Structure formats: structure tokens, C-alpha cells
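Troubleshooting entry. The earlier prediction with MTE gave an output that would not parse, so I re-checked the input for stray whitespace and re-submitted. Clean input:
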Amino acid sequence: MSRGKTLGWSDVTPRADYMTRRALIASAAAAGLAGPALGQIVAAPSRYSTAQTPNTREEITGYNNFYELGTDKADPRKNARLLTLKPWAVQIDGLVDRPGSYGLEDILSGAQMEERIYRLRCVEAWSMVVPWVGFELNQLLARVGVQPGAKYVGFETLVRPDEMPGQRRAILDWPYREGLRLDEAMHPLTILATGLYGEEMPAQNGAPIRLVVPWKYGFKSIKSIVRITLTEREPVCTWNAMQSQEYGFYANVNPEVDHPRWSQATERRIGGGIFAPREPTQMFNGYAAEVASLYAGMDLAKFY
Ligand SMILES: Nc1nc2c(c(=O)[nH]1)N[C@H]1C(S)=C(S)[C@@H](COP(=O)(O)O)O[C@H]1N2
Ligand SMILES: [Mo]
């Protein structure tokens, strides 16, 4: 981890990966920018994308978990228009060299955007494939300078009950909070997503900026982030704090460790139709080759 000097984006984005033209337009639009020279952008699929066919935009934006906007799967889309997305800032604090409130435009200005087609496995045993647009969280962490004592990263969602009807009720202990171990946060699969299907992130999917950690149950992928805190201690996570027997801190997708109230061995792919057979759930949601080494020697039934 670099420390002691101010990092420009060019210092932390060594790879020559280029986002698609559509993704670039989306991120530039999200940042309120005119956009750089589009002609120079080369479209290249990310090596981290799955070859599976993504779910439709209708499925991805119409079947959501975003309790701030309601608990029914159709509520978030219905209530999406209530949310004010501009201006948006993210407070970055705790064990970092350059704490502060970072405007979204600033965060996106130097980020190396890519399209990442990822599998998404909800702890409720349904799944989708989503073509996100985003950038690796490690880019932002390098830019703010992670201090040596930091071992975890905590995240918080916006609290704005007048715009988020779900927050007027004590469904969860607001703000929605999540966290990762620092090595999980630094992993190249872990992204901050600002769009999907090459367009600006719909509010119901966690606009303007949300976490995506594809090998963990969906509840770890916290939406509409306003705060990122580097800590020495494991951060409080909403679902884990509420029901720790059912939702662990790690929440790695694991077909061998059942939820106390249902099996995690199989999943229902959204959009498959009522006659489609359930699909077997894969260890680490199919990302074992990339992430299993993070948990070497850990008892995954104990650290669920
Ligand atoms: N702030 C916040 N983030 C959240 C949630 C939520 O209720 N509030 N739901 C989580 C759950 S359970 C899942 S499965 C995913 C769903 O993301 P999607 O609606 O984009 O598919 O978002 C996660 N992030
Ligand atoms: Mo979920």
C-alpha cells in the first residue's frame, strides 16, 4: 500500500483496460461531465466477466432488494423516482491518509471504468447475471491511502427517510451497513458499480454508486453508498447484527452451508420461467478460482 505521497489516478490505474463507449458515456453523464475524447476509447470485455447471458434489463431493474425503498421486490422500482441523486458525495474516513468528503464527479473522474458481467446470488436462493459498469474498489482505496493499521472496510447507505419510504419504518437498523476484510476489498473482483447495461445506474439498483462483491451473498453488495470507513475492527453489518445465526459477516456463497431456514444447495434463476429446473449453487458463486485462497485454512461452516 502506498503511503505518504498524494496519489494521482494515473499512479493507481496501471492496466490498459478500456471501458465500452456506452459505459464511458454513462459514467461521464453520471459525473455531469462532457466526457473525454470518445474516439480514443477501445471497447474490450473484462477478463473477469462471465460468459453467461445476462438477465434482461427489465428483470434486473424490476425485481430488487432495496429495503429503504420498500420490502416487496417491485417496490424499489416504484419508489426509485423519489430519490435525489445529485449532488452526491461519499465520506471516506477512518484509517486513511486523505480522509474527506469526495464528490461523485471527483471519484469517477480518474476511475478506470469497465463492464463486468457478474453472477449475483441472493441469500434468498435466487440469482441473476448482471452487466455492471464500474471500477475496482482498490483504485479508490489506493487513492485515499490505506494506513497500516486498517484491516477492514465499512460501508454505509444514505439515510433520507423523506425520500426513502422504507426508512420511515424500523424494518432494519438504518443506515444499512456492510463491511469487508481489507483483502476482500482490495480483490480485483470487488467493484464499485455506477451503471448497468451501459447506462447510468437505476436508483432501484443502488444509484449512484454501490458495491458489488460477486462471490458473496447479495446483501453484502450495499447500495447508494455515502460513507466508506477503514477500521481495525470488524465493522457492524446490518444483517449480521440483526440475525447473526442466519447472516454471517463473511456471507460467502456456499452450497454446503445451509441457511437455518432453507437449503443453499440450489438457486432459482430469475427469468428462467416456472418450468426451469433449479440450478446448482456454485462454491463462491463460481468465483472459487479467483477467491478461495483468501480463505485458506478457514472453517467456512464456522465463518459463514
Ligand atoms: N442499502 C441497501 N443495499 C442493499 C440491499 C438493501 O436492502 N439496502 N439489499 C441487498 C440485497 S439482499 C441484494 S440481493 C442486492 C440486490 O441488488 P439488485 O437489486 O441490484 O439486484 O442488494 C443488496 N444491497
Ligand atoms: Mo439478497
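This one parsed fine. Confidence is low (pLDDT under 50) at residues 1-8, 10-21, 34-43.
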